[in-house]
Amino acid sequence: MTRLFGTNGIRGVVGQEMTASLALDVGKAVGTFFQGGRVAVGNDTRTSSPMLKAAVISGLTSGGCGVEDVGVAPSPSIQYYVKTHDVVGGVIITASHNPREYNGIKAVDERGMEASREEEEGIESIYFREAFSQVPWNSVGRVVNIEDCNESYMGAILSRVDVELIREARLKVVLDCGNGASCLTSPYLLRRLGCRVATLNAQPDGTFPGHPPEPKEEHMRELMEMVADTDADLGAIHDGDADRVMFVDEKGRYVLGDRSLALVARYVVRRNGGGTVVTPVSSSSCVEDMVKASGGRVIYTRVGAPVVARTMFEVGAVFGGEENGGLIFPEHQHCRDGAMGLSVLLELMAAEETSLSDLLTGIPTYHLVKSSLPCSADFKEMVMEALATRFRERRVETIDGVKVFHKGGWVLMRPSGTEAIFRVFSEGSTLEEAERLNREAVSILREVIEDQEA
Ligand code: MG
């Protein structure tokens, strides 16, 4: 069976893969999967989102599902609504950080967690067999508009952090909403946290006139300048659906996502007096260093936020996240939450009474080197087995590719899911060390691939 869902829902270019008829059929499939019941539906600020949402709602209601339309909201706001209301699941219309011509459809379960692979397969099976439920006129689902989704979401975050402590710190924050869904939440949240707030791109606009909706360094120039020019304590930026947050320190410098992840992980583990932190196998060692030094332990997962969230749920983790600014706070909810990440960082800064750049000097610096080698998809499995055998004397993690730990560094050899290549990531405490580890791994990997092809 062909797959419909990728690693983060269904994504595509509007008018090409992502059309009204696709959205209608996905709505019908999700409605059939949920077997009636009420489903929450919400969307980001993209120009195509209302069109796709109308089609999804049409599909859901034709199969007998009631719909609670929460309107424009960050993905974590919609997920929180699902978690705390009597609905069987949710559908989010968003393409997250992708460029403006894209859009996407994501399903979440009744706990507000991104659908598991098994649930997606259930929906895909209905979709490809076109085994849609079709109810008569008197069973068609009703649509109600929900007005307070974002308000209760912000209330939940305020109940999870020390508002008084943050208010007393009177932090000055420059926030770049990137014209995305966070325009409706984060600026107001910061005001209630007593911050002095200056915003950039804070009007919802699906043409993304400020910059493309991915919070990466090249899209953060204006934010970095404004933080430096205005003597602010912190710069923050969300992606299009605001499940992620990236930071700029008080000197206007970009903060790598691994470093903010490690900083928050240390804070949460210290506060809990230990606990488990979950992060993908590709994360920097600075995360494990900080967690271990604070009395906690790290569990590694495959790459991708849904699997991190699910593993956290299963093992009862205290915190988890990815290097791209996706931070997960399980006492709040089991999904990435940009505004929650921002609020916890403010609490951390207020509690430590020092600048972000000062706090970051306590995080060890590692260097990352990336390369790749061609490898046909037919050999990928065999190559991974051969690699695991080859390195069996060392600490090896084989949950996603083969990660080999060395003294002061590691190498991750991971087959690409979409291209006929093997990626090689290496990390070392110096650039020379990372380069050396990468060279060695590439030469071993080349040997192993040649053996398999021979
Ligand atoms: Mg996102």
Helices and strands in order, then pairings?
Elements lengths: L9 E4 L6 H15 L3 E6 L5 H14 L3 E7 L2 H10 L4 E5 L8 E7 L8 H13 L13 E3 L3 H12 L2 H7 L2 E5 L9 H7 L3 E5 L20 H10 L3 E5 L6 E4 L5 E2 L1 H16 L2 E6 L4 H9 L2 E6 L3 H11 L3 E3 L5 E2 L9 H15 L3 H6 L5 E8 L5 H11 L5 E2 L4 E5 L2 E7 L5 E8 L2 H23 L1
Parallel strand pairs: 2-3, 2-4, 3-6, 7-8, 7-9, 12-13, 12-14
Antiparallel strand pairs: 1-5, 4-5, 9-10, 10-11, 14-15, 16-20, 17-18, 18-19, 19-20
Helix pairs in contact: 1-2, 1-4, 3-5, 6-12, 9-10, 14-15
The structure holds magnesium ion.
Describe this structure in words.
This protein is of the alpha/beta class and 454 residues long. It folds into three domains: 10-146, Alpha-D-Glucose-1,6-Bisphosphate, Chain A, domain 3, CATH 3.40.120.10; 152-360, Alpha-D-Glucose-1,6-Bisphosphate, subunit A, domain 3 (Alpha-D-Glucose-1,6-Bisphosphate, Chain A, domain 3), CATH 3.40.120.10; 367-453, TATA-Binding Protein (2-Layer Sandwich). 39% of the residues lie in helices and 22% in strands. It has 15 helices and 20 strands. It has helices spanning 20-34, 49-62, 75-84, 117-129, 149-160, 163-169, 186-192, 221-230, 257-272, 285-293, 305-315, 338-352, 356-361, 380-390, 431-453, and strands spanning 10-13, 38-43, 66-72, 89-93, 102-108, 143-145, 172-176, 196-200, 234-238, 245-248, 254-255, 275-280, 296-301, 319-321, 327-328, 367-374, 396-397, 402-406, 409-415, 421-428. Strands 1-5-4-2-3-6 form a six-stranded mixed β-sheet, sandwiched between helices. Strands 8-7-9-10-11 form a five-stranded mixed β-sheet, sandwiched between helices. A hairpin with an 8-residue loop joins β4 and β5. α1 runs parallel beside α2, α9 packs parallel to α10 (285-293) and α14 packs across α15. Magnesium ion is lined by residues 96-97, 239, 241, 243-244. Magnesium ion binds at residues 96-97, 239, 241, 243-244.
